[in-house]
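Friendly challenge for the regulars: who can give me the C-alpha cells for this chain first? No prize, just bragging rights.
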Amino acid sequence: MSMLQKTTIATLLLASLNLAASDSEINDAINAATKHYKAGELSQAIAQLDYAGTLMRQQKGEQVKQAFPPPPAGWQAEDADSEVAAAAMFGGGISASRNYYNDAHRIEMQLMMDSPMLQAFSMMLSNPSMIAMSGGKLTKIQGIQAVQKLDGDSLELQFMTPGGAMITLNGDKAAQSTMLQLANAIDLKKL
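First reply, four minutes later:
Bragging rights claimed.
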C-alpha cells in the first residue's frame, strides 16, 4: 500500500471518528439534560439542551455550506464559512456565506436560517407595498418571489426559501446577470 493510500485511509478514519464523537457528544448532552430534568435541576437541564442544540446547529452549518453553487465560468470562489448562534443569543440560528469574484467584480452570498428574527424579514419580503416603499423591485428566483434593490452601483438581491432560509446576494450592478445565475443555482434542497 502506498503512502498516499495510507494517508487517505487514515484521514477517512479520523473524519468518521470526529463525526461519531459529535454524535456521541450530542447524545451525552441530551442524556445529561434528561437526568438533570428528572432531578429537578432545570437550569442545568436547559444548559445541556442548549449545548446539544448548538452542536446540532454546527453540524447543520457544515451541511448548509454544500448549498452554495460553484463559481460560474470566469469566476472564482472562496471557501464557504458558517457560524451558529446559541439559543441564548438572538434565539439561535445558522448563518453562512461565500464570496465569488473575478478581476472586475465581487459578489457576496449570505444565508441565514433557523432564527426567530427571520419572521420579521419574511413578512417584509412578502409585502409588495413595503418592497415598493423601500425602493425594491420584485423578481423571481427559482420560482420564489425575490427583491432587487439598487443603491447607486450596488445591487442587493434577497429572498426567503420555502424552508425558511433568507438568502442575500450583494454585488455591483454590472454583475447582475452573474448574481441572478448564482441565485438560481443554489441547491435549496440542502437548506
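The chain has two domains: 3-63, 69-190. Residues 69-190 form a domain with the Protein Transport Mog1p; Chain A fold (CATH 3.40.1000.10). Your move, everyone else.
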